[in-house]
Design the sequence.
């Protein structure tokens, strides 16, 4: 007698869902993807500023060091499908890749669309229903009843509905409710890789200004350093954003953000002594000018007036009248422009959602629920998340692969 192939439902057509669906199909299952938007991979298409940082060319050990929550849970998933697997996977699907600074891997074409197309291609053996799943329940015979545009029956269900951020891409958090109703706990959901708000009017006046090659420190009220980094940041009407700010945000979970200060070293390449010599020479070249007209060589023009306000020297003061004490103050602000922080931006603006389905209730070897047999989870819905660098997509690929394979084989 011919065996009927296993009917598997994948909820969510993102990175994890497409990987799970394609893999389950490869292992012989009859797969249906449910996707609530009108397209597969909407979020994937905007990743890495449209270039898609698809993974990180690092070892599994280094990889786990970049996972902020529950790294050990990922061990088996990475064993089944690691960063090398991701590289050969996409190259096998005809997408040439390249590795950039920080071992970040991108498509050679710089087009996230090529990654989306490859994933669509890989999962094309599955049927896709563009309809939102409203509920899932398990029947007495162990099958699952899935309600979307109509009622469907499946042998297994893989929930890969993503997080709660960028809801326009479809990840509106509805998957957490599905998981909850199936008996799973969801840990606290907080934004990660998120811009930070500040109460300082300085940010508003510097809105739109991008600073490259600055060093930042995030400090507590007793000046201990929580995080430091070097690179690019930007001012916005609400506060601060840009790569090093987003990275910093993932390190602030255990703090009340409103007690923290961002300290920006505007001249990290110059120590105070060198900076003093530089100021003395700039000032002697401009000695009869107003203070406000003497800083053009040192600061971007948009920053000069707000900087002078912060230093507290009259902008019309003649440069030759600036005292040594005032010069020390200028150096102090150049080396440490302090911005009091207030809170995270709303979770909708986060690159990832931290928190999710409690991993204690899921088998790390299969991604299967320990509560309901035949139920699996993959991707950002899980309570695992990582820093920037291609790690979050790799988590989606590894857990998606393992969930798809285990569901088909069980
Ligand atoms: C702007 C931005 C840039 C990013 N850049 C990078 C990067 O360069 N590298 C990196 O590693 N990570 C990046 N990330 C993070 C990465 O995109 C996510 O971690 C990853 O997409 C998670 O994959 P997922 O499949 O779990 O969820 P998603 O990709 O969010 O997919 C979930 C899917 O499920 C669907 N869905 C949700 N609920 C239902 C429902 N009830 N019924 C049916 N369908 C449903 C959604 O419509 C969606 O298509 C970025 C994120 C953002 C927002």
Sequence:
């Amino acid at each position: 007698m011919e065996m009927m192939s296993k009917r598997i439902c994948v909820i969510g057509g993102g990175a994890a869902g497409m990987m799970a669906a394609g893999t389950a199909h490869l292992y012989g299952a009859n797969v249906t993807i449910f996707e609530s938007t009108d397209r597969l991979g909407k979020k994937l298409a905007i990743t890495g500023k449209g270039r898609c940082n698809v993974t990180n060319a690092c070892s599994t050990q280094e990889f786990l060091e970049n996972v902020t929550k529950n790294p050990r849970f990922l061990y088996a998933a990475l064993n089944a499908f690691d960063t090398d697997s991701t590289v050969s996977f996409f190259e096998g699907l005809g997408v040439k890749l390249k590795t950039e600074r920080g071992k970040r891997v991108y498509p050679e074409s710089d087009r996230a669309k090529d990654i989306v197309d490859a994933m669509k291609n890989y999962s094309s053996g599955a049927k896709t229903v563009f309809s939102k799943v409203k509920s899932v329940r398990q029947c007495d015979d162990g099958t699952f009843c899935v309600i979307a545009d109509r009622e469907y029956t499946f042998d297994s269900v893989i929930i890969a509905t993503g997080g709660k951020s960028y809801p326009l891409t479809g990840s509106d958090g509805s998957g957490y409710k599905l998981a909850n109703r199936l008996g799973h706990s969801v840990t606290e959901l907080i934004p990660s890789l998120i811009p930070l708000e500040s109460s300082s009017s300085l940010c508003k006046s510097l809105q739109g200004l991008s600073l490259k090659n600055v060093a930042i420190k995030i400090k507590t009220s007793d000046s201990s350093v929580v995080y430091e980094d070097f690179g690019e940041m930007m001012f916005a009407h609400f506060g601060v954003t840009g790569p090093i700010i987003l990275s910093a945000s993932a390190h602030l979970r255990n703090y009340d953000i409103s007690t923290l200060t961002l300290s920006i070293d505007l001249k990290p390449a110059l120590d105070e002594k060198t900076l003093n010599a530089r100021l003395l020479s700039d000032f002697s070249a401009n000695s009869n000018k107003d203070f406000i007209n003497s800083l053009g060589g040192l600061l971007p023009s948009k920053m000069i007036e707000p900087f002078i306000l912060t230093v507290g020297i009259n902008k019309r003061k003649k440069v030759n009248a600036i005292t040594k004490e005032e010069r020390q103050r200028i150096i102090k602000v150049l080396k440490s422009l302090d911005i009091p922080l207030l809170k995270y931006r709303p979770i909708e603006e986060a690159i990832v959602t931290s928190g999710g389905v409690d991993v204690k209730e899921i088998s790390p070897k299969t991604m299967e629920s320990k509560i309901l047999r035949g139920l699996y989870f993959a991707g950002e819905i899980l309570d695992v998340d990582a820093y920037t660098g291609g790690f979050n997509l790799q988590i989606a690929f590894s857990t998606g692969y393992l969930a798809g394979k285990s569901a088909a084989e069980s």
Summary: The chain has a mean pLDDT of 96. The first helix runs from residue 15 to 26. The chain has two domains: 7-191+349-409, 195-344. The longest strand covers residues 225-235.
